[in-house]
Amino acid sequence: MTTIEKSQKKPAGLRWPRNETPARAAWEEEPSLTVKAAKSATLIVVVLAVLLPLYTIVLTSLSSQSTITNAGGLVIIPGEISWDAYRQIFTGGVVTRAIMVSVGITAVGTILSMVVSVLCAYGLSRPGTLAHTPLLFVLLITMFFAAGMIPSYLLVSGLGMIDSYAALILPSCISVFNIIILRGFFMGIDQGILDSARIDGASEWRILAQIVMPMSKAVTAVIALFYGVGYWNAFFNAILYINESSKNPLQVVLRSYVLQGVSVPGQIAVGQGVAASLALQMAVIVVAMVPILFVYPFVQKHFTKGVMIGAVKG
Amino acid sequence: MSTLLKTDTDAVTGNGAPGGRADSTKTRNKSKLAPGVRSSLGLKARFRRDKSLIFMTLPAVLLLAVFAYVPIMGNIVAFQDYSPFVGIANSPWVGLDNFARVLSDSNFWVAVKNTLVITAFQLFFFFPIPIVLAILLNSLVRPSLRATIQAIVYLPHFFSWVLVVAVFQQILGGAGLLNQQLLAHGWQGLDIMTNPDTFLFLITSQSIWKDAGWGMIVFLAALNAIDPSQYEAAAVDGANRWSRMWHITLPGLRPVIILLLILRLGDSLSVGFEQLILQRDAVGAGASEVLDTFVYYTGVQNGDWSYAAAAGLLKGLVSLALILGANKIAHLFGEAGVYSKK
């Protein structure tokens, strides 16, 4: 919550002066009390529907064995707080390994995706350049016709990439969607600036690195978030291409522990309390959630700036 | 060719969307002048001038060639009796046999039926919610409150399906929070997560929880683009709140609504693959088998590669026809659609 507020960068705007009623246009009638009440009730329900499940899951992951037993399951009212569950899943074992796999895939994948996408988007951002139309066409066709799962699987297995981390990165490395959004943004940059750099003898590489990129921080951040979230959340590619359980990313482990009821193993250090199995499960959920909660507020503020419209509209 | 070209610039700048439109239309017009001027150069000179730009696109083109185009050609296994041991080159050709088998398979038709039912159900119950939410949120006067609620409801969109299903299971599952409370107060527990009869409602509510907030973003943008003086003029003429919504707000949203409907129609054969595969064990294949899971289980799990590829290829071709058809319909209604022939 606090992070979200920070991201607005308008601390003053958040605390609306109590005595000052927000501006409603002079011609606009004040809504009736019923309308107002119905509106606020709906919004409160919507917000709670998102936040309550997350709240109880985080709280349960932090609760001690006895608190969970007393609650009879998920904890709503905070009781005794215990970090045992996190201690247990972070001291080696399957979850720790899966976290490392997911972090690695996400970091390497996002960087690779961004480099390839930004280059491609800039390369296609000047209509009229040689081969511009055919190249764009090559990209766009893939948005209308997807190859299908079976040939993709046969290809990846034919390349000997089954059980390799590359199988989690390369097939999903670029999204034409994201490239088109980036391209749209690059095309919107004032060409006069770029032309003057060209006249001064700057190469396209240098223009991209020193002029275009610094002007495109917001859109780059949003697209990087999309790619990063995609890699972090990748589940299907993993069950398709990864058989070795030691290479499973976090989402697959989350599925087996929480949805399929496999009990969470963990190394219990001497002298530490044993975490409740429910707390362990919830801790795995929280771990899968935290990176998104952490990055999201920094990028969220850019969503409404128009860069997003292309993404949703496709 | 030019039809597709139009697509992307339109999609990105977003007709009727404020932010993108304002800063890109100007330069788009400018860059449109460029091609005529530039193509007067010879091919060699143009290559020399543009070679770094072309090189920049190569990594992406290469990745697409390998991971998108090679598999598209790999669909020929649908016309073979493919065996992984002999490979594509040596597998016998069987013509359209696989397609005949697929079309006479009752399990395939169950998957088709489920897919279409889920799409129709979600179109009816899911699709209007982001619109309503956007109008509701747009009516809030305080920008800070609006921004906070927006930030909260967008959030679940970024969670994985595994996470969403896990959260639902913890809240609504047999041992979840809801049943825990019901049982504690002497009520009967509910069987939500494993009941095939209510599965449609379950997956739709999951989709709503995850994506309704995010779906709102494009409608909010469209609402922003409506000229406020229209409202003022209507109010001065005596139109009340509801008639202003009917005559100004909804017409303002119409192009976006139609565009998203087209996209959804073109996508109607893809329904939350991960979401369904995660819950197939719990509710059984009868209720949860859709085209994608059908392909996965017959192909990857049972090794009937050619058969599954045939089913997948059918799906791809019908989807292509749907998106082109939906776009055609949009043109007939005088809307821009996903791409246009200007």
UniProtKB/TrEMBL annotation, chain A:
GO terms for biological process: transmembrane transport. The chain crosses the membrane at residues 41-62, 99-124, 136-159, 165-186, 278-299. It holds the Pfam family BPD_transp_1. Signal peptide: none annotated. This is ABC transporter permease. Keywords: Cell membrane, Membrane, Transmembrane, Transmembrane helix, Transport. The keyword Cell membrane applies. Residues 99-291 form the ABC transmembrane type-1 domain. One of its GO terms (cellular component) is plasma membrane. Residues 1-21 are annotated as: Disordered. Gene3D superfamilies: MetI-like. It is a multi-pass membrane protein. Belongs to the binding-protein-dependent transport system permease family. CDD domains: TM_PBP2. It comes from Arthrobacter glacialis. It is found in: Cell membrane.
Automatic annotation (TrEMBL), chain B:
Its main location: membrane. It is a multi-pass membrane protein. GO terms for molecular function: ATP binding. Residues 1-32 are annotated as: Disordered. Residues 112-326 form the ABC transmembrane type-1 domain. Residues 1-12 have a biased composition (Polar residues). It holds the Pfam family BPD_transp_1. GO terms for biological process: transmembrane transport. The chain crosses the membrane at residues 53-72, 116-137, 158-178. It is found in: Cell membrane. Keywords: ATP-binding, Cell membrane, Membrane, Nucleotide-binding, Transmembrane, Transmembrane helix, Transport. The keyword ATP-binding applies. GO terms for cellular component: plasma membrane. Belongs to the binding-protein-dependent transport system permease family. This is Polysaccharide ABC transporter ATP-binding protein. The lineage of its organism: Bacteria, Bacillati, Actinomycetota, Actinomycetes, Micrococcales.
